Amino acid sequence: MSQQGPILVVSQAKRAPFASALDEAKLFPLVETEWRDAAHAVEQVQPAAVIAAASGDKQADLAALAGQVAARSPYLPLIAVDPDGELPDNAIPFFQSQGSPARLLARLNAALRVRALHATVMRRLAPPTTYALSDIDTFRHATVLLIVLGEGFSPRVMDAFLTVLTEDARFRNLPVMVASDQTDGTHDLPNLEILSFAPAQIASIALPLIRQHAFEASLSRTLRAIDADGLIDARTGLLAPAAFDRDFATSVYQTLERGGSLSVARFAFDPAHPRAQFDGARIISRLMRQMDFGAAQDDGSVIVVFAGTELRNAHLIARRLSSVMRHTSHGKREASAEPGVTVATLQPNDSAKSLLARLHAEARRAAS
Questions:
Q1: Is the Cβ–Cβ distance between 8 and 33 less than 8 Å?
Q2: Which of 115, 156, 274, 277 is placed for a possible disulfide with 269 were both Cys, Cβ 3.0 to 4.6 Å?
Q3: Contact, 324 vs 287, CB < 8 A?
Q4: How many CA atoms lie within 13 A of 337 on its CB side?
Q5: Integer Cα distance of 319 and 212 in angstroms
Q6: Pairing state of beta strands 49-53 and 293-296?
Q7: Which of 92, 85, 107 is nearest to 52 (CA)?
Q8: 226-258, pLDDT tens digit by residue?
Q9: Where are the beta strands (DSSP E) in 88-191?
């Protein structure tokens, strides 16, 4: 893909094999430098991405380079090839033993898309606001899907699962860690790593990829909010409260005038876990139908409007959404982590205000 600036390759005096593979692909202009000149090269070359040979005793050098790279804007991807030890927050791993040159190119392209998205958001933010990868707190912003493939899962099952991820554009760029040597790694997943390490080391390798993905998702929501002139909440991907109130009143009026069905669902989250509301809202924004809309509320709940939907189907849709949220928790399957769901449907004598009042009354009765 096109990018502003060349790709900077940092390695030992001897040319790294991955650099030759990148050069042969002829997709990017390459500039090569040794570790001792890396800091100067970043300033002089103004690269679009940095790929560093990080094996051996390069952990301190990698940390220094990562700090320099992190200070640049827009997002400057740093890919660490065959890293030893814990990775800096902004260093994306790549292991040559399990990854072909084609996958390195795919991982580079995926990172460059994040850079291009960041540049677009920074250009369009008004007033200008500083927003960087370092603002992403993995604990607060990232949702991690832990998949455990252990005894009882055949290579065929694992390959089938990876194939499903490959074929769906929504999941293709997800970071995927497979702790098994029973799959061949030929799937077209740019952020797939097949690793035979201890669990703690695998988690350490996964975190920079998870953080980059969370940054990309946040940028996408921000861009949607910009495109919608602030009508979309960049934190959740749902409507901003004022836009929701307006659209809800309009939908109720039009349904009463023209006939048809309309239902609303309220997903109540534990106020002791405020992040749960945002996780739930983001899941809803991705999975709800195009005709539906919703918004996060000040009381910690999320309200969703199901257009053209009668009560029975609204219950079914709400249960499906709740089922997904039930499995997206903070590592604990506690009742308090699951949203309480109430549903109400529009009656002939309703207004937007009375429908919401009945929805909240149902929620109070359910809570008691």
A1: yes
A2: 277
A3: yes
A4: 13
A5: 31
A6: unpaired
A7: 92
A8: 998 889 998 889 999 999 999 999 999 999 999
A9: 91-94, 176-178
